[in-house]
């Protein structure tokens, strides 16, 4: 062992290289260079630092310096050139091992995230792998998903920016930030809602106004999948329902999956309630948009007219036309619930663009 605690096996043949370089001035052969690279890789894999490895080689250089080379400048140059080539090959091998280790770490993390968010793999093994990435699957977790105009992977500048912002504020709090299908994903303990809110704020800014959805806290590995799917559903609902909010919470949107659960019943309601609107001049879409604006504005005619860029008189005419065609009066509380539920169903089912 050297004074730097590097085993002698990593210095095998080095004294011979120095002696021959001093005698003949030859460069290291291809095999000798590859041997140093291999030794550098092995040192990295064994956990030795590059600094310690280079230090050991410099110590060995002093120890095995060929005495006759000290008599001439030429001999000294020959030895130093050999040292330079040997250390350079060592460093190259060491860095190669480091790059391979990083790539393997990235691949392992990617595989873990994919398995976790799809509910694949044995739960026991998944729990063991989760601890390596700072997650305790015995606890409840919630998942936030952010999407923007672009697609993001684990090395994207947006991903790194959000990760750094969250880590700077919360440090190591069993938080995992990754990407899936081009979206940013944050997994955090279920009792730390502030983490996901901060992630949402950072992701919204980093993606230039992207939208973020947060699933409900759920226990276990299966709970992470459930919360992730809730967040995805919330993003899809926002798109279909025309919801412009930058932050969506699955807990606030539970009524929509309930309404959509019986697709056939919802289709029947839309067809029987709103179907007559297709007989109107211009089709059903303008009147359906009128109902949407009317209900979204809390049934306030002036606000609905403003949203539609209509006069209140024109809006009133449209509402009367809807009443005449459907037999349901939007201004009548008895009829309003049925009409509003049918309008929600139409948006969920993309009617009348999609016939059923």
From TrEMBL:
Domain PucR C-terminal helix-turn-helix: residue ranges: 287-343
One Pfam family, short name: GGDEF_2
Annotated CdaR GGDEF-like domain residues: 119-237
InterPro entries: CdaR-like_regulators, CdaR_GGDEF, PucR_C-HTH_dom, PucR_C-HTH_sf
Family per similarity comment: Belongs to the CdaR family.
Protein name: Helix-turn-helix domain-containing protein
Species: Streptomyces chengmaiensis
């Amino acid at each position: 062992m050297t004074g730097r605690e590097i085993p002698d096996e990593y210095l095998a043949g080095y004294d011979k290289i120095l002696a021959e370089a001093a005698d003949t001035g030859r460069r290291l052969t291809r095999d000798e260079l590859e041997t140093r690279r291999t030794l550098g890789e092995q040192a990295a894999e064994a956990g030795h630092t590059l600094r310690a490895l280079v230090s050991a080689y410099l110590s060995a250089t002093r120890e095995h310096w060929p005495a006759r080379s000290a008599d001439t400048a030429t001999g000294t140059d020959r030895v130093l050139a050999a040292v330079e080539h040997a250390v350079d090959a060592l460093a190259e091998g060491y860095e190669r091992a480091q790059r391979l280790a990083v790539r393997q770490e990235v691949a392992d993390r990617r595989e873990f995230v994919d398995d976790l968010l799809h509910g694949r793999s044995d739960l026991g093994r998944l729990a063991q792998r989760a601890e390596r990435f700072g997650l305790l699957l015995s606890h409840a977790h919630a998942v936030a998903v952010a999407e923007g105009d672009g697609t993001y992977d684990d090395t994207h500048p947006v991903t790194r920016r959000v990760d750094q912002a969250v880590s700077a504020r919360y440090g190591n709090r069993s938080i995992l930030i990754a990407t899936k299908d081009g979206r940013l994903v944050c997994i955090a303990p279920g009792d730390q809602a502030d983490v996901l809110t901060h992630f949402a704020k950072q992701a919204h800014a980093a993606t230039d106004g992207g939208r973020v959805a947060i699933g409900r806290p759920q226990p276990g590995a299966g709970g992470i999948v459930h919360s992730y799917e809730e967040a995805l559903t919330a993003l899809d609902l926002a798109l279909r329902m025309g919801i412009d909010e930058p932050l969506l919470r699955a807990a606030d949107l539970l009524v929509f999956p309930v309404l959509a659960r019986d697709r056939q019943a919802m289709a029947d309601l839309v067809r029987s309630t709103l179907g007559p609107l297709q007989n109107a001049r211009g089709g059903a879409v303008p009147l359906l948009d009128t109902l949407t604006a009317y209900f979204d504005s809390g049934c306030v005619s002036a606000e609905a007219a403003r949203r539609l860029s209509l006069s209140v008189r024109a809006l009133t005419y449209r509402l009367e036309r809807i009443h005449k065609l459907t037999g349901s009066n939007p201004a009548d509380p008895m009829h309003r619930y049925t009409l509003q539920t049918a309008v929600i169903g139409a948006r969920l089912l993309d009617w009348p663009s999609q016939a059923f």
